[in-house]
Design brief:
The chain is an alpha+beta fold and about 450 residues long. The chain contains 13 helices and 5 strands.
Amino acid sequence: MKLVKKFTQGAAFVALTAMSSATLANDAMNLDELLKTLEQGKVAQSQENQQREKEFLARQSEQMQMLRSAEQSRNSKLQESERLETNFEENEVKLAQLSDTLQNRMGTLKELFGVLQQVAGDSSNKFATSVVSAQLQGRDVFMDDLAQKMGSTSKLASIEDIEKVWFELQREMTEQGKVSRFNTEVIVEGGAKQNKEVMRVGAFNLIADGKYLEYNNVTNTLSELNRQPVARYTSSAAELQQAKDGFVQFALDPTGGSILGLLVQAPDTEERVHQGGTVGYVILAVGALALIIALERFISLMLIGGKIRRQLKDNVARDDNPLGRVMKVKDQYPDVAYDTLELKLSEAILREMPKITRNLTLIKIISVVAPLLGLLGTVTGMINTFQAITLFGTGDPKLMAGGISQALVTTVLGLVVAIPTVFLYTLLNTRSKNLLLILQEQSAGLIAERSEKGA
């Protein structure tokens, strides 16, 4: 307090000195007037300081009052905290006693409700993935709510809840043995929704319009499979949906769709052929060429053979068949010796041979080249596989599937073309040799006849 007062007086003195200096600078004053002015300033300053001291003392008492009020509030809160802590401890004791009482009163019911909670949780998962839920929706929601309610609170299940759990389990077992029909929206190819009659085969498959359906338990929607199985399976589905009574053969998936999902992922014949790549297309083109040539040769030899058989029954030689043209040689050279006639007949047979054996050599070449092309595709596919391994490693088998597929498919295509081509070549070659044998046989008879005449 004294320091504040002295500081205030010093400041006033400095201020008055400054004012006096300024006054002396402006007005000429004597020493008596200056002294009087200083005394007046000192009195005024003293009065101002006293006023400030009174205000400070008044505020000090106010702050003391606030301090006492805060202390009283703190003491009250401490008392309240002690009271609440005591109540908390008492409640814990009561809760433990009540829990023991609940456990004693529940007895064997505790095990029952535990089993009920487990059954409700398991049934919720089962109902969510069951195809029966496509027809009977909302069952998994009830089971899930019941399991969560019994697991998170001490509230017991009611008789109605227990009976509903039993009812839903029994209904699931009953529906698994039924083939039922119902109408619902189905997502078809392209994403559009159409209302269709759906047939549910137990808890295994769903079909509509002869197509297999897929049930999405997340969105509770039915949709057609992006890829349907082969025709013999879809035809059985169509027959089942059209049947009114009796027994019908049906391709059923006992796994509820797992086997069907793998089955539709398997490539069909056309996709396997495309897996062969460029080499596979070349093999097929070569095989088609061999088939066309073999078909042309088979028809041609069949016609030639028919004409030769007709010529055998006729003594008049005709120019429309190889045998007739060979027989005409005898008429063209009626006076030559039999050895000369033999040479002429051999020459005629040699002229007919290219027409009978035409393109057979090409079929034989194709039967040999086709497996070599398959081997070429195998090597190419393995090169692609090793390149994929070099770039990406062996972590993902799908990266190697393309090369391996090409390697295996081209080998199969090569064998598929070569094996029937060998049979065709053998058949056509045998038929052509039989025709040539007939020509040689008849030629030998003509020579023998000329030899007898010469003798």
